[in-house]
Amino acid sequence: MKEQIEQANGKLGILIPGLGAVATTMIAGVEAVKKGLAQPVGSLTQTGNIRLGKRTENRYPKIKDFVPLADLNDIVFGGWDVYTDNVYEAAVNAKVLELGLLQPIKPELEKIKPMKAVFDKTYIRNLDGTNIKEAATKFDLALAVMEDIDNFKNENGCSRLVMVWCGSTEKYIEEADVHQNIYAFEDGLRNNDPLISPSMIYAYAAIKKGVPFANGAPNLTCDIPALIELAKENGVPIGGKDFKTGQTLMKTILAPGLHARSLGIRGWFSTNILGNRDGLVLDDPDNFKTKEVSKLGVLEDILQPELSPELYGDLYHKIRINYYPPHGDNKESWDNIDIFGWLGYPMQIKINFLCRDSILAAPIVLDLALFFDLAKRANMSGIQEWLSFYFKSPQTAPGLRPEHDIFKQLIKLQNTLRHIMGEDLITHLGLDYYQDLVESL
Amino acid sequence: MKEQIEQANGKLGILIPGLGAVATTMIAGVEAVKKGLAQPVGSLTQTGNIRLGKRTENRYPKIKDFVPLADLNDIVFGGWDVYTDNVYEAAVNAKVLELGLLQPIKPELEKIKPMKAVFDKTYIRNLDGTNIKEAATKFDLALAVMEDIDNFKNENGCSRLVMVWCGSTEKYIEEADVHQNIYAFEDGLRNNDPLISPSMIYAYAAIKKGVPFANGAPNLTCDIPALIELAKENGVPIGGKDFKTGQTLMKTILAPGLHARSLGIRGWFSTNILGNRDGLVLDDPDNFKTKEVSKLGVLEDILQPELSPELYGDLYHKIRINYYPPHGDNKESWDNIDIFGWLGYPMQIKINFLCRDSILAAPIVLDLALFFDLAKRANMSGIQEWLSFYFKSPQTAPGLRPEHDIFKQLIKLQNTLRHIMGEDLITHLGLDYYQDLVESL
Amino acid sequence: MKEQIEQANGKLGILIPGLGAVATTMIAGVEAVKKGLAQPVGSLTQTGNIRLGKRTENRYPKIKDFVPLADLNDIVFGGWDVYTDNVYEAAVNAKVLELGLLQPIKPELEKIKPMKAVFDKTYIRNLDGTNIKEAATKFDLALAVMEDIDNFKNENGCSRLVMVWCGSTEKYIEEADVHQNIYAFEDGLRNNDPLISPSMIYAYAAIKKGVPFANGAPNLTCDIPALIELAKENGVPIGGKDFKTGQTLMKTILAPGLHARSLGIRGWFSTNILGNRDGLVLDDPDNFKTKEVSKLGVLEDILQPELSPELYGDLYHKIRINYYPPHGDNKESWDNIDIFGWLGYPMQIKINFLCRDSILAAPIVLDLALFFDLAKRANMSGIQEWLSFYFKSPQTAPGLRPEHDIFKQLIKLQNTLRHIMGEDLITHLGLDYYQDLVESL
Amino acid sequence: MKEQIEQANGKLGILIPGLGAVATTMIAGVEAVKKGLAQPVGSLTQTGNIRLGKRTENRYPKIKDFVPLADLNDIVFGGWDVYTDNVYEAAVNAKVLELGLLQPIKPELEKIKPMKAVFDKTYIRNLDGTNIKEAATKFDLALAVMEDIDNFKNENGCSRLVMVWCGSTEKYIEEADVHQNIYAFEDGLRNNDPLISPSMIYAYAAIKKGVPFANGAPNLTCDIPALIELAKENGVPIGGKDFKTGQTLMKTILAPGLHARSLGIRGWFSTNILGNRDGLVLDDPDNFKTKEVSKLGVLEDILQPELSPELYGDLYHKIRINYYPPHGDNKESWDNIDIFGWLGYPMQIKINFLCRDSILAAPIVLDLALFFDLAKRANMSGIQEWLSFYFKSPQTAPGLRPEHDIFKQLIKLQNTLRHIMGEDLITHLGLDYYQDLVESL
User: Fold this and answer.
1) CB atoms within 10 A of CB D412
2) What is the CATH number of the domain that holds A142?
3) What region holds the Myo-inositol-1-phosphate synthase GAPDH-like domain (chains A, B, C, D) (predicted)?
4) Core-most of A327, B163, B167, C125, by most CB within 10 Å?
5) Domain for residue C435, yes or no?
6) What's this model's pTM, rounded to 2 decimal places?
7) Buried b (16+ CB within 10 A) or exposed e, C349-372
8) Which domain holds residue B265?
9) Whether B336 contacts A354, CB under 8 Å
10) Residue C348: in which H helix or E strand, if any?
11) 3-class SS of residue C135
């Protein structure tokens, strides 16, 4: 398989619907890293190592030296937004990065101006935008996005493109007839079906153009039969949904640990305070519901209450998100976990995470862009479950239970890289170290 | 291999040096579980499941139904202690379990009376005991323990025995000449070498008698060449050190998660308050040092700062244990973790764990007893690294770096079980689910 | 004034609308205290001291030895509830107190059976009751309550009565015409005016019967001109509203401290989790609003943003209450406070209070009953602002700003007691200690 | 008394032994405030209001408009330090304030160069200094400090001076014969008595020169009969000890609140992490002991366990300070408080204060300087107990119990200001509001 991977020659264009706090933090960061002004901390592709072979071989190359990823110097950025601010202005408004860091890369950031966005107020009530595409049908909007894609590719001389959705959470909708196959879907586009959301239009346009698509919000987007089918047909990698940051990140770290030790859980209360645009959008119950569904599923998969009803059968799981302007982008979570151990004795865990929303999300956008580009060159089309490591609500093959345990997700990711590069998979068995020991004594 | 495992017929005697809070909580719990009065929560052997085969096969048997473990009804308990209280009295004094739970099993607990202990005040200054073996040399003490073992086995009609150290933390010592081989060690026993601690005398006696030995304290004990060699020669499984509970449990859950996401860590401050006998012993700096060394190593192995000096090279790690009587056995930890992400931006995590020391440790004692017994019957002698899941400071082959990441430890444990039972090892690759998908579409 | 206080002779009947967790915890506690089984911790009247005279005099009598309060042995209890459970059954269901404590006082508790309640489902949607008074008009309901009062007094041979509302939070209503004077109010009673709530009917009945009335919920109840006027006319002490426990207690402790030091506050986020009947009722937004209004006012009074807009002008204050069954009555609050100091530098305070709702409220009910009875005997009629110490939202003279600072409230309470007993008021000036010093040197 | 207060004409020189983080933060702040670049938040003298008269009068002037304090524009700064860094350099090294704030006031700060310090390594083992006075005896050192004082006053044209100790915590010593009167003390100075610490030499020099002296560290310093006597004789105000910031500030806010409600306390565990020079000095057990004694006394005074042994008699109070470099000046405290309420039921409070040491201390230095200068002009000599509001361990008249309750301290301060300005003292009685009410109805 290793031999068949196309090399990462030429420029890679990263196209982003939603040039808000997350996207601008990522773009500014990449530009700062290129100039040696900062470190790409939190990015597995840039700073992570991978163990190869036995523990005693001491082979731990950087991931970027092990698999052929695009180089940061070969990346160009583009995107769409409902506001006209260029990336410098948007980054300043987002108040995530200090001006002292933004100043030296101002010219690079100012150059990136948002293309007009596909926007539908029925999907996001708490936002208003001025930089909006106007067209008679959703199909026309899709065509306009495709035209944007072509223009961007030509103007920037890109050899490859990848698209990562960094836009807002849309209101909650469920899979319906219009999503069942590509014919129904295209009919729906032409008929302005209300169940086709803006993010679906971007995904459709990307897949039609052969551009890998990763979905960073909990929206349904490309997790519908019509687009899965189209992606397979067109040989395009797709995946999602919802960047795994903050509280859910902590949850998928901690829950596997409690489960590993067979500790019971009676209740898990999670609350968040944040004051950025994301917090404002999620103040609308319809949009919160989309998020809530994405966040709630996590525990059930990890704990498998049907196998251990005496430990997890009565678990009460509640999630709250509160808009709290004084914190801005500095999202903060507080979790109360009511566990019980030997003979049912109760214990409690409280976790207070003073995090930064965009700081945690930005390296995920970069990693996904680079890995989806790799997947395309490695001829891996359709759903990329091996990247579920990055998602709150991983898209899987229909009927296949997703893995939310971040450690299983990490092994899946690492063993996939080992697999495509022809290295032995790692099982952590390790009995052989002690075979040798016997003989040497 | 599966066919060669001896079945778990007859009675298993679990012998415990140190019948304090942890041991009595475990024993009382097993008796309560046998009578259907409580659930063995926190015990992987009693409540855990193991996945076999592909995700779609839905095979998740209970571990105790998958591997041939001793049945709880076939277990008898014995032990040594520096106080003369029987197990009922000791359990009441420990104030871990409610009287309402102890009452119905009082007869079973009262029957278990501690044998006279090997004790050396130079190793544990803050304890005094009255139920102490007297003998001219440490060798004589070892012989006396061996006699206890024989007597216990005969009197209780056991077919097999296993020993789990639940005694206190001894003062800090380092490996010395007297520990290098069995001849030097036995000379030391005869010469009352001060570097041979009480726990080593128990371990030596156990191994000589062919009894598997697990070390629940951070003491050096069986982690010395002399006893490793003796264990291999006698075909005895051994392992340690230090039950992984409370704060270190949380640390080996959380640190792998932060490392998985390449988040940097600048500082990790861990403090504990506890008011039981363990807290009293650790109030002595010499004993705390033994504990501290055991607890400190954890992060370095998981984070591998030599591979990522920019993320973990400057990590300041500090651990404090404070004797605080109002909490009794209800140990409580508070961790402050200073992390940094994308472009070096700082974030913080605070964890407050209101735990119960003995409630977390008790099921570990049971699991270790059952798994060490299994190992013996499966002809796995010497160090049992596959059980490092249970230890703060896992004993490994000399020169082999221990794995502290609890998730790698869990996979190691599970894949070892699969391996000895002839099942496929699990790699979480899972690309085949998508091969099928392609074809089915 | 001291001489005019009527002594506390004969029996005092404490009548309680709402025999739920709070009331039964109070009643059971008083019975347990009478039998020497427990201590009345948290009750200022039973355990508090009061300083008299100069610091150097060392006069600190118990409050109950200083002012003539009813003795616990002279108290009898009665009440109304929408359920028919007697106080023993209700206490068992409330799961606040252990069975071991309730057992010895079972006979006393079983004897107390709830009278039929005045209930109106439009005011409390999340409760249903079976023990309900039926009558054509609200006026008839009031007469029925008055009859209950008379019967209780006669049957129990009481010389005095006091009523403390321990029922649920009613839906939010604002003061209207029907509340403006006693004529309008009595017309409303006869016409079943929807703006007359059940708690108002109890308050009216009590005042008519000369029984002091304290309101432990945030309901409007007796904080209307009609009932204030009636109370003055009838010489009856009244007061409220909303027992100050848990999070608001902490807030009125902490906020005065931050204000004392002129520290600025940008945001205060307060969240609660609780799983008792109170939590269930407050899950209804209409009822939560009543509570929210009561809890929100606290900060504004203490911080006086109009005087220091640069410190408190932009304070964002948000309060959340979450129904979380795993915690039962063990209410838990978490506060995040964003403060700023010298030159505007930000700091944060996080408070996690693992409290018990009824345990904090019960002694307040007792204290209020005893102090309202004292007020009556001291001829203090109308609003008792000196007891604002116990309330989240103190009732004051119309147009008079309430004091929420718990320390000013405490001085007010203590100086009132000193005042009525003819002792010097305390100002903490204390310059005289240093005058003496000058002369003695 | 009001008429006798000397007006604040001319320049006030603030002299500071110890130009470290606290002092430079204060000085830089005052310069920034003078230029309108920042706000003096946390300073009662600059931003606080004081209520005068009845609540209904609505008279709340700023304190600085009510009493005649020195104007910030009339202040000049000077000081001593063991390092030669000027205030700008020291402020940069302290890393408390951002460079962006320090830049515009660089010229003012650079001008302030430390005079050579009195230093004795036996008192502070963890510091080394290069800017040290050399002299044969401690008396000569005192003379040299007096000369510095005179020179500073002349060179800067000051009409008045005040000295505030901002130096480090010295090792623990107890009052001895050499401290009993001024003759013994001056003999000790001449004989280099080891029980005379550097801070005592500064205090002696100040008092001899008629300069008010406030002690911001927990050192014994001026809390000895010799210096109290000298201060009275020379008409000089003195006071201390130990600026009340961070954890102790919170403790003296919270403990009075719990005590007010008669809630019992079984244990209070307080831990701190900090990484500045203060943390380094306190890493030495001898110096920590001085601090510990200062911090421990607080609870005993507030709770008065001798009056309520059933509530506070068994309180276990433990304080830890941990040097933790990653946090720098951002001191962080964590408190666990084990309380109990009605019938002895236990509850817990956890407080996590993410504070900034110097940001909290700086305004205290300024307030103390201004109030001590006022005291001098108002002819208030000797111990200024009315300023105990600012101190962890307030100096009081010999034999007089200090008040640690911050709210009593605040009333004491405010009523003292009202007293010297001829306003009515406030008692919070307020019954008259209801007298009026009666009549108006």
Assistant:
1) 23
2) 3.40.50.720
3) 246-358
4) B167
5) no
6) 0.92
7) bbbbbbbbbbbbbbbbbbbbbbbb
8) 247-354
9) no
10) strand C346-354
11) coil
CATH assignment at residue A304: 3.30.360.10
> Residue B420: what residue type?
I
Concatenating the DSSP letter of every residue in A41-73 gives TT-HHHH-B--BS-GGG-B--BHHHHS-PPPGG
Q: What are phi and psi of D340, to 5 degrees?
A: -145, 150
Tell me, yes or no, whether C429 lies in a domain. no
**Tokens representing residue D190 in the block:** 């001449």
Buried b (16+ CB within 10 A) or exposed e, D243-274: bbbbbbbbbbbbbbbbbbbbbbbbbbbbbbbb
From CA A383, how far away is CA C156, in angstroms rounded? 77
Beta-carbon separation of C257 and D250 below 8 A = yes
Mutate to test the interface with C, among A266, A268, A269 (most CBs of C within 10 A): A269
Q: Is residue D413 part of a domain?
A: yes
| Contact flag B359-A349 (C-beta cutoff 8 Å) | no
Supply D415's token pair: 């009523």
* Cβ separation A262–B44 shorter than 8 A: yes
Tens of pLDDT, residue by residue over D250-290, are 999 999 999 999 999 999 999 999 888 777 888 788 888 88
What 3-state class would DSSP assign to A85? Answer: coil
Closest CA in chain B for residue D321 = B320
For chain A, which chains pass the contact test of at least 3 CB pairs under 8 Å? B, C
Residues 6+ apart with CB under 8 A from C58: none
Say yes or no for a CB contact (<8 Å) between B256 and A356.
Answer: no
Q: Specify the number of domains making up chain C.
A: 2
Q: Are strands A213-215 and A75-81 parallel, antiparallel or unpaired?
A: unpaired
What is the H or E stretch that residue B59 is in?
Answer: none
Q: Are B218 and B291 in contact (CB under 8 A)?
A: yes
Same domain? B121 vs B170: yes
Q: Report CB contact under 8 Å: C327, A352.
A: no
Contacts with C412 from chain D: Cβ below 8 Å: 428-430
Same domain for A99 and A131, yes or no, is yes
* Tens digit of each residue's pLDDT, chain C (441 residues): 788 899 999 999 999 999 999 999 999 999 999 999 999 999 999 999 999 998 888 899 999 999 999 999 999 999 999 999 999 999 999 999 999 999 999 999 999 999 999 999 889 888 888 999 999 999 999 999 999 999 999 999 999 999 999 998 899 999 999 999 999 999 999 999 999 999 999 999 999 999 999 999 999 999 999 999 999 999 999 999 999 998 889 999 999 999 999 999 999 999 999 888 777 888 788 888 887 877 788 898 899 999 999 999 999 999 998 999 999 889 999 999 999 999 999 999 999 999 999 999 999 999 999 999 999 999 999 999 999 999 999 999 888 888 999 999 999 999 999 999 999 999 887 777 776 544 443
Give A132's DSSP letter: B
Contact (CB, 8 A) for D142 and D201: yes
Whether residue B196 sits in one domain with residue B95: yes
If we measure between CA atoms, which residue out of C365, C258, C250 comes closest to residue D255?
A: C250
Of B256, B262, B429, the CB nearest to A41: B262
Same domain, D211 and D280: no
**One domain, residues C181 and C301:** no
